[in-house]
Amino acid sequence: RGSWRGGSEPILIVPGYRPGGGGFNAESGLERYPLSLQGGTGRGFALAGSIVRAKHSVRVPTVLTRREVEKVLDRLQGQVWLVASLLYGSGMRMTEGLRLRIQDLDSMRHEVTVRQGKEKKDRRTILPARLMVPLRNHLVMVRRQHAADLKIGAGYVEIPGALAKKYPNANREWRWQWVFPASRRYLHRETGVQRRHHLHQTVVQRAMKTAAREAGIAKRVTCHTLRHSFATTLLEKGYDIRTIQELLGHVDVAT
To answer: Domains of the chain, with CATH numbers?
Structure first.
């Protein structure tokens, strides 16, 4: 049972209750303690069911014009330029783009397969035709790097757990290699083999921030900005909202 402590702003003391650090802990604590006030103080206490939840603030997404996107991309180079260009041309999230495997690219259909996206579902999106040549040239270098790794007994990458057990040699196969591999290998302690991870997201994030600043764009530009700009560009071209939703992997059209 709670008790009131006097003062200009009365405080309800609940023995044994310690709020945590989450956004709704105070509210959830009240739900766990459906208290009633006794003692004739004249003050009432709202039941948990009548609590009004505070609304989360909604930030309007930043969108770049096509010219602004060009100005940012013009200031990027190499692998980072290709990552950013693919994010803008496909609408993928940054992590989805960095986790692409060789087998996820379909140059014949001009499609990218996104495995286990944010909604834990696979989906297909656009592989821009204008990126086919630079992407092909990039993969030639990636394959050379992989061949060099194999020669020294490396060439391993992480693959989903169930597949790793079923196909123990699959993690050295070309089709499972990262489209955007990291420049350095690392030692996997559990197996003792040298693996290569995909390009780290901070490399792309920092490059994007620098490029936007050098381009003189007075907006908050991130990799996710390219995703919003992709959707806006499709809307301007007359694509229907349902198609855009499927390409982005959104469950709700409103998002």
So the answer is: 3-50 (no CATH), 66-248 (1.10.443.10)
